TrEMBL record:
It comes from the Eukaryota. Belongs to the major facilitator superfamily. Sugar transporter (TC 2.A.1.1) family. The chain crosses the membrane at residues 41-61, 81-102, 114-133, 139-160, 180-197, 203-224, 365-383. Signal peptide: none annotated. Keywords: Membrane, Transmembrane, Transmembrane helix, Transport. This is Major facilitator superfamily (MFS) profile domain-containing protein. It comes from Exophiala xenobiotica. It is a multi-pass membrane protein. Its main location: membrane. Gene3D superfamilies: MFS general substrate transporter like domains. PANTHER family: PLASTIDIC GLUCOSE TRANSPORTER 4 (PTHR48022), SUGAR TRANSPORTER, PUTATIVE (AFU_ORTHOLOGUE AFUA_6G14500)-RELATED (PTHR48022:SF29). Residues 45-417 form the Major facilitator superfamily (MFS) profile domain.
Amino acid sequence: MSKAIAGHDVAATDVAKVSEIEHLLAQDTTPWYRKKNLRRLYFCLVPAALGVEMTSGYDGSVLNGLQAVQPWEDYFNSPTGALLGVMTAAFSIGAVIAVPFVPYVNDRFGRKACVVLGSAIISVGAILQTAAVNIAMFLVARIILGMGIVYAISGASQLIAELAYPKERSVITGLFNESWYAGAIIAAGVTLGTYSWDSNWSWRLPSLLQLLPSTLQLIFIWFIPESPRFLVSKDRHEEALEILIKYHAEGDRSSPFVAAEFHQIRETIRMEIEGTKTPWKELVSTNVNRRRVLIAACVGLFSQWSGNGLVSYYLSKVLASVGITAKRTQNEINLGLSCWNLVTGVTGAFLTHKLPRRRQYLTSYTGMTIMFACWTAASAVYAQDHTNNSAAKAVVALIFILRVLQPHDATDICLHL
């Protein structure tokens, strides 16, 4: 038998297993909240893993709120231009520094270890930011925070995807991304509550509170199991099977669903090991592969280049550019926008498995392009006539409309190419 025929037979077997899993899932009509073990798993997954993206939302958004806190502006001499850009980018710089090392930790020591390491690093960064006495110390703290969040997100996202019951997986992974906005709401609410304090604690307290979600992760991570997929990759098959039986079959050792799922995991790992023998040049060896690589790379870039950074990190500057300079008003708009983002984000998460990814992606970016054009036009009108309050209000309204479209950009489209 040729290798091509053998490979085809393996692929056909995998397709049959996937179809069997889908068939068995369709027969399971019991909701997750009526399954004791699964309910307990999800209860602990929320603070231990789902909350990691909440940490990212808080850490990534708190600087936006601090720009509307006068004591922070005074303490750091009202940073603007390149300096403010570096202070904002420091979080992302830290993430870039950590990226090469994250896969090693994740695959060598496990998903839980990655979350623990990331949360510990974030805790160190939060303490340093709280105690910052100059811009250099503040920058170092932001870099450390960025390094930690990459470890935590990598481990947590895989834990959620690999532990969640397939029936709820798409919704839970969608909620993982959108929980970023829950963290942003907390950050906006805290800075709204402290902006009027006439002391440095008006910005040190929001910095210190970055510790809380990481502390919860360090506590609850010990109450959830390791990823079955990771355990299989380390030849710890019995442990992986026991986890699947407990949480995906409520202890039923004869469950045909667990048998099919376990087989699928083992075959996927085996095929991935086989895939490592394929040279990297295969990625660009054909037009089809080059197209897929290009789209997969661009999706990640475009999702971060869609204007979310402009609103997430420079909202107070954007508002000031259209005459909204009152610190309280800026903080209130920031809080309102964060709440709005959570509503639209959660809605988008529930729509993910109902609408085609490609349609979501194209609709989202087409709509955002139009909204940005209108935003630019309204800003230009206000720049020419500072008494035109209608143009200023239009800018604020367009920011809210823009955020309706962003949760539907379907960045996971690359998984379906």
